[in-house]
Amino acid sequence: MARRNLIKIAFLLSLLILFSSCLDIEPTYQRKNIETAIKNLCKEEYNLKVEVKEAEDTIWIYAPFNNLTDGKGELDKKVTEEIGDIILSLQRVILSIDKPPKFYIFVASDIKNTGADLILIGFVPDLVKFQLRFISRDEFFKRRYLNFRINPQALGDEKGYHIKKFNLDLEDFTALIIGQQIRKFFTSAEYKEYFEVKKVEAGFNPQNKDLTIIIDIKKKKHKPPLPNPLEETLKIAQYYTCKVYELKNFSSLRIEDLDSGKIKILSKKALQELSFD
User: Fold this and answer.
1) Distances (CA, A) of 126 to 38, 46, 100, 118, 257
2) β-strands 145-150, 103-110: how paired?
3) Domains, the chain, ranges and CATH?
4) Is the pTM of this model over 0.85?
5) In this predicted model, what pLDDT tens digit does every residue of 55-78 receive, in sequence order?
6) Contacts of 51 by beta carbon, 8 Å cutoff, 6+ apart
7) What is the rounded distance in angstroms from the CA atom of residue 227 to the CA atom of residue 186?
8) How many CA atoms lie within 13 Å of 138's alpha carbon, on the beta-carbon side?
């Protein structure tokens, strides 16, 4: 159910982004008024009430819904449209502000039915790059974190108190994207028949500047040639840390493969020089 919901949201956002290139990108909003600007735009144009909170360089938008899904467990059509309106409002402000934040985090919660959170996290420079057609739509989608989770704490929360607001940094965001892309790779239509993804965790330690990735991906069937989970994890980690985001506060990578028992540790320089040809 959650996976189908995420696919619907991703498709809707793709349509919104295609049309958003027509928007005026002159700085019509001021950063000091970003919370009010987003709230007013949602209320005045779509009659939607949202809670907005700025945490340093991260803007949080919270939208409570009585139900996120319909009786069939699918994302409710009306909710889908309203989420789209909120995301469009958010993008309009971000792309028309004098000093844009670095990250946006949107949370839609089911506060009456099951208690659940739908979370979308994006890096504003990626949004700008897509608008300028420096990256493709597919690449842009890969650079956003999207998650659906059951969360009983959402029940009855109209203000978003159960969501801890914090300033997201690029290293932690990159870890989220890496973990998401590893899961997507091995659960894709091409490989889901052959692999069981039991665990994927990626986290950044700001004290020693290490990125640690723990994977437990088991082969269910053998059909050569199949990708090696450890090698694919290395490829994905290298791509996002060294090529896409070029992390500055990053010194080494540690990968623990629970299925094979292998541990791979590479310095940033060694990871940059790694070749998979």
Assistant:
1) 20, 26, 12, 21, 31
2) unpaired
3) 2-168 (no CATH), 172-273 (3.30.70)
4) yes
5) 999 999 999 999 898 877 788 899
6) 39, 61, 62, 63, 159, 160
7) 9
8) 0
